[in-house]
Amino acid sequence: KITCVSDEIGHTVSSLLDLPPEKFITIPNGTNTEIFYPLDKNECREILHFPKDTFILGFIGSCYPYHDIDTLISTLPNLTDTIPQIRLAIVGDGFMLETWRQQAKRLSIDSIITFTGYVQFQEANLYINAFDICFASYKQGTSVFPMKILDYLACDKPVITSNIPTIKKYFTEMPFFKLVEPENVKSLQNVIMNLYQIRNQEIKTHRDFVLNNYTWTHTAKKIVCLITER
After folding, report:
1. CA distance 103 to 129
2. What pLDDT, in 10s, does the model give residues 184-223?
3. I want to staple 4 with a disulfide (CB 3.0 to 4.6 A). Which of 9, 177, 207, 225 is the partner?
4. Measured on CA atoms in the order 78, 79, 81, 86, is the torsion positive or negative?
5. Cα-flanking dihedrals φ and ψ of residue 39, to 5°?
6. How many whole angstroms separate alpha carbon 193 and alpha carbon 209?
7. pLDDT given at position 112
8. How many CB atoms lie within 10 A of CB 202?
9. For residue 175, what are the contacts with CB-CB under 8 A and spacing of at least 6?
10. How far is residue 121's CA from residue 134's CA, in Å, rounded to a whole number?
11. Closest-CA residue to 59 (of 202, 210, 170, 162)
12. Helix H segments across 1-59?
């Protein structure tokens, strides 16, 4: 058997290597809830030198083309009038970073976007907890099962992600967990506004969902079960 983190990856590898599809088993990723856990937002912002009186949309991860960050940047000008304190933090480094920087300059919104570049892994939990909304956005056709969604949920944060097969198979919408159509500015704008309007409500269910379903212990047990079946 060959394990994959999504059905789509299994189908692709099966085709490329001319292997029977039944050899492939999907076992989703997990997260480490001892590394990712809730912290006080204002304390995290003080450590990171983020302003406390802003509404921060945040992405953390490697800057790859399949991340739908260009749509997020394009949406920002539509929100500055209704959310004047809005800010965007892009935390990470990679191939697309300079492209996204230039896009922000063309739209004249670079003053409200922070590009941190590479950060140490041990700082990731601070950044996630400093955000008001966490993004895990992907282009149509992306076949990943993103760990960052689980990391965000483990911190009990509001999450916006993409309505693609590898995500909607495992996640359904909740009040603070929203699926948006990829590369759709209007859809993203509406969801951000919706979450902004309920920003003062407390989230208590996201971390429990991860603890009950998507820790690395769950992943390991599924792999052990697969091995012992043989």
Report:
1. 26
2. 999 999 999 999 999 999 898 999 999 999 999 999 999 9
3. 9
4. negative
5. -135, 165
6. 24
7. 97
8. 6
9. 198, 201
10. 17
11. 162
12. 7-17, 41-48
Picking from 141, 142, 155, the residue whose alpha carbon sits closest to that of residue 60 is: 155
- Give the mean pLDDT of the chain: 94
Query: Token digits for 13?
Result: 């590898």
Confidence of residue 230 (pLDDT cuts 50, 70, 90): low
Q: Sheet of 159-162: strands edge to edge? A: 113-117, 86-91, 55-60, 133-136, 159-162, 177-180
How far is it, in rounded angstroms, from Cα 196 to Cα 79? 11
Place of tokens 């919706």: 194
110 three-state secondary structure = helix
Widest distance between CA atoms in the chain: 60
Buried-exposed string 75-98: b where 16+ CB fall within 10 A, e elsewhere:
bbeebeeebeebbbbbbbeeebbe
Rounded to an integer, what distance in angstroms lies between the CA atom of residue 128 and that of residue 142? Answer: 23
What token pair was written down for 187?
Answer: 């859809």
CA distance 202 to 198: 9
Instruction: For residue 56, name the pLDDT band (cuts at 50, 70, 90).
Output: very high
Please state the pTM of the whole predicted model. Answer: 0.93
> If DSSP codes are grouped into helix, strand and coil, which group holds residue 129?
helix
Q: How far is CA 147 from CA 32, 46, 108, 208, in A?
A: 10, 26, 32, 16
H/E element holding 71?
helix 69-75
CA distances from 149 to 79, 111, 138, 174, 183 (A): 24, 27, 12, 13, 18
